[in-house]
């Protein structure tokens, strides 16, 4: 009797093992960033398979802010952000605030330093932010190219600091009432023009 019960348990375990393994594999498979962007009502021609590594949102906030981080080969990282349930004033205001933050990094105004001294951050021309806004299918796409340090902080102004080549695209989509921001970070040694073109291809549909 004990022997038969042991055999039954072993047989049951062996039968359930493939199903459990398959379920674990399905659960572990990362979601593609491209699919998530489509669910947001936007698309971008990503040249690499970015897989989502982190996702966070506040379900109770209105408008609702969602943050996503995705990774691809070569140390590439894309940070995607969506502000949903936002009217034009809220969505475009969110983008304008982010744009002002980025532009202020390169203003030649004195910055506080240890609350006593001041310093002027002057970027070499090569490392200054490039801003190219344009209309895309009736909506304005704000596109920027700049550099970031190893901690993904913008404003890297020397070759020693510029660990990442970065590209940022921001767009408000009236149909989905969403503001979407893509930030791409590519190690300088891995960077190709296709990385920037991918971010610049962001559009509503």
Describe this entry's structure for a reader.
It is a single chain. The protein is an alpha+beta fold and 205 residues long. It has 2 domains: 1-29; 31-204, Protein Transport Mog1p, Chain A. 29% of the residues lie in helices and 34% in strands. It contains 4 helices and 12 strands. The strands form 3 sheets. Strands 2, 3, 4, 7, 8, 9, 10 and 11 form an 8-stranded antiparallel sheet that branches. A two-stranded antiparallel ribbon has the order 1-12. A hairpin with a 2-residue loop joins strand 8 (134-136) and strand 9. The radius of gyration is 23 Å and the shape is globular.
List keywords for this structure.
205 residues, alpha+beta, Protein Transport Mog1p, Chain A, 2 domains, eight-stranded antiparallel sheet, two-stranded antiparallel sheet, globular
Beta-strand content estimate: 25-35%
- N-C termini distance: 66 Å
CATH classification class of the largest domain:
Alpha Beta
The CATH topology of the largest domain turns out to be Protein Transport Mog1p, Chain A
- Strand/helix succession: HHEEEEHEEEEEEEHE
Overall morphology: globular
Oligomer: single chain
Helix content: 25-40%
Largest sheet: 8 strands, antiparallel
Structural classification = alpha+beta
Radius of gyration, in angstroms, nearest whole number: 23 Å
Give a brief rundown of this model:
The protein is of the alpha+beta class and 205 residues long. It contains 4 helices and 12 strands.
């Amino acid at each position: 009797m004990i022997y038969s019960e042991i055999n039954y348990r072993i047989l049951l375990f062996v039968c359930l093992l493939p199903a459990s393994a398959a379920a674990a594999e399905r659960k572990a498979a990362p979601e593609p960033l491209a699919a998530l962007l489509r669910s947001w009502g936007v698309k971008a021609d990503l040249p690499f398979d970015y897989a989502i590594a982190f996702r966070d949102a506040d379900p109770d906030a209105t408008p609702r802010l969602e943050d996503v981080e995705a990774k691809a080969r070569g140390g590439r990282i894309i940070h995607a952000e969506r502000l949903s349930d936002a009217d034009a004033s809220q969505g475009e205001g969110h983008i304008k605030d982010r744009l002002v933050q980025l532009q202020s990094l390169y203003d030649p105004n004195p910055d506080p330093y240890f609350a006593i001294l001041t310093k002027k951050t002057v970027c070499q021309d090569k490392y200054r932010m490039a801003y190219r806004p344009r209309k895309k299918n009736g909506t304005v796409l704000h596109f920027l190219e700049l550099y970031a340090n190893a901690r993904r902080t913008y404003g890297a102004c020397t070759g020693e600091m510029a660990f990442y080549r970065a590209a940022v695209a921001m767009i408000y989509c009236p149909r989905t009432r969403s503001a979407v921001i893509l930030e791409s970070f590519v190690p300088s040694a891995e960077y190709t023009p296709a990385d920037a073109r991918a971010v610049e291809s962001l559009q509503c549909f």
